[in-house]
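Standup notes
- DV: blocked on the single-chain target, sequence here:
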Amino acid sequence: MKPIETSSSQVDSQLWSQLQNGSEWALGRLVKKYFNPLQNYGCKFVQSEDFVKDCVQEVFIEVWQRRERLSTPVSVRAYLLSSVRKKVLREGFRQRILKDEHYEVDTVVDWNAQQLPHEWAIIEQENVELLTQKITILLDKLPKRQREVIYLQFYQNLNRDEIAQIMEVNPQSVSNLVQSALKVFRTHWQVIQVLLGVILFH
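- DV (later): unblocked, structure below
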């Protein structure tokens, strides 16, 4: 039998269906695929990696315990990201360890070269490092929710509806946040438009 590839949303839905029917193997596949990305996302809200790790584990435990009552989400990845976000914010607020107790969470993102979108890999490594440093400075100028929406769209490759589900806003608000963030890019750093044009339309 050909091994199941874990890169498609269709396979995620198949694994989710198997999980609902009691497959520990399917749960393990989802944990293996998503644990690290979920932990990385959770660490945008709090500094304690151990706390975030516990939150991610609790999300998977709750999914398993509630499996028979869960519907199949349109996007398993978006569902898990949303669940971790809620868990981290709720527990972080309760334990008073959020970077900001109100969300506006102070999202400190490690915009390292490894996290850059795939299209950017065509740039020479030294240019990636230089570009990343400049992007980091520029992204720090963004309001916190704009930073989060940019992270979800360009670093997690989520679509507008998935981001809306995660951030608990309507899709138009997501579009507005993205446009506002890109306006900051255009205003503060004209050269990035040229670089992005070369990269994305190469």
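- Follow-up: The longest helix spans residues 24-42.
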